[in-house]
Amino acid sequence: MTQARRRSARRVAFDRGKFPTVAFVNLATAPLGLDLHKLVAVLQKQLDRDFVPIWGYPARLYVTEKPKPGEWQLVFLDDAVAANLSGYHDITKNGQPISKVFIKTTIAAGQKVSTTASHELLEMMIDPGAQMWAQSVDGKWYAYEMCDAVEEEEYRIDGVAVCDFVYPSFFESWHQPRSVRFDHLRRISHPFQTLRNGYQTVSDGKSVKEVFGSRAKRRDFTTHEVRDLHRSEYRKLLMSALGNVKGARSRKRGGSKP
User: Fold this and answer.
1) What is the pTM of this model?
2) Given the DSSP bridges, would you call strands 133-135 and 98-102 parallel, antiparallel or unpaired?
3) Residues 173, 191: contact at Cβ < 8 Å?
4) Domain residue ranges of the chain, discontinuous segments joined by +
5) In terms of DSSP H, where are the helices of 96-162?
6) What are the phi and psi torsion angles at 250 (to 5°)?
């Protein structure tokens, strides 16, 4: 079994029968730019006030140095190298999901730590295994990510910037343009739209690629934004593993024919 498939097998053990507690752990040496307790309080307000009424999946957030078994984690690290050295990847040793915010990488890309943390938290809440997809009318599969398409759209809660997020209607092809609300800030006008400064992970069932809202976003994504250990990279591993399995089955069936 490949490493990607082993990770996938462990992810299905998440206990979705109860609402999670998310432990915020700061292992970064670089400054966050704001007090972590204030950030977590703001994210709890965004979750309770804005996100849960739409998506219906609450969580309790808190700051700690030692997360308990069974808790999800959002970990602050300097960069992907630090994540590898610390052993922080896609799941904890207890089989729970982790989201990572790379402080140095985020700041170098001209992004805010608070917005990035909001982005990672909201996406983890709905698809902790980074394995859900929605199909559009053209047959393509779009990653079920809450913030990628509206990535650089933000608003403030108690003076702290947080990320815009899409609504379930965003992933429902039958809605006519502007017929319903597609995201919190009303920037989206139709299903599966990618805003100018956003991107999405798209699959044809065989391979996975990113689509961008503009050339500038494509340039920034490839030259300035480091996506190592990001959810989108994990999706590619899963799709690749799935493709290999399907290919092997197809070859086996073909070989059995007279």
Assistant:
1) 0.82
2) unpaired
3) yes
4) 3-251
5) 103-108, 113-126
6) -65, -40
Please provide the size of the chain in residues. 258
Identify whether the C-beta of residue 23 lies closer than 8 Å to the C-beta of residue 73: yes
pLDDT tens digits for range 135-180: 999 999 999 999 999 999 999 999 999 999 999 999 999 999 999 9
Could you tell me the two tokens for 10? 């462990």
Phi-psi category of 158—alpha, beta or left, where left has phi over 0 and alpha has psi -120 to 50?
A: left
Helix (H) or strand (E) holding 201: strand 199-203
> Using alpha carbons only, how large is the chain's radius of gyration in Å?
19
Residue 218 corresponds to which tokens in the numbers above?
């494509």
Partners of 134 in the β-ladder: 142
DSSP H helices, 65-165, are: 80-86, 103-108, 113-126
Give the span between the Cα atoms of 4 and 11, in whole angstroms: 11
Instruction: Give how far the C-alpha of residue 176 lies from the chain's centroid of Cα atoms, to the nearest Å.
Output: 26
